[in-house]
Amino acid sequence: MADPKTTDSTDISAATATLPDDAALARRAMGWTHTARFLTTASRLEQLPQTELPEIAFVGRSNAGKSTAINTLTQQKRLAFASKTPGRTQHINLFELGPRDAADALFADLPGYGYAAVSRTDKQRWQKVMADYLDVRRSLAGVVLMVDPRLGFTDLDLQLLDFVGPRLANGSVKLLVLLTKADKLNRRDADRALQQARDTLAGISTEDSDIGVTLFSALSKRGVDDTAVVLRSWVDSLRALAQPVA
Ligand code: GDP
Prior knowledge:
The chain is an alpha/beta fold. Helix content is about 40%, strand content about 15%.
């Protein structure tokens, strides 16, 4: 077992965010996330387009702040709005990023789960969609899991991590946990939430895994730049791997 790279997006930001190189990196990453545009919506996995583009899935319990996080990251007020439309809440919504004529990545907004009023059948359906998506989607490069730090990881969050466990363990799928609505926490509670998340993630971290956690707030913008930089680095690292060796 190895320590999760939980300091990537937290300690680094505290220490170096003011350096010019980091500012440039953040600007570039935020410019890239801003290019996100709606591609398609699918109620079934078979309807998702087959693609070679690296895909980053956004997942989380209903109300964890997923839509707000996507809108904040992409600096677009209503991008993730479709996911909230009645009848669309169980859909997978895909967004394309990069130059219009040469897209380089996809964001997938997956259905929120665990809403208290949801029936057992709906919960089972959710589990199947998630398990299948995480299993069959070969282009999946990373998962961004939104967790409300006042609730911590729920059973369904842990189940989801379990679905994708083998791919997290060998590093083929990366994970970033956003502890959302961080503006609602005082410093002590924020530190405690971060530590608890690190402890949970230590249980699934290996030498090969790439697992991070950061506090995130749409209101104060805490963690937003760092998140964009991490997601951009996932895509860059895959592109570097795909380059033929000269
Ligand atoms: P989703 O169901 O996971 O997509 O959650 P939403 O993005 O709709 O957010 C759920 C609620 O949390 C909404 O009332 C948001 O305004 C609120 N919320 C989301 N992000 C933040 C944040 O960073 N700070 C605060 N204070 N509230 C937030």
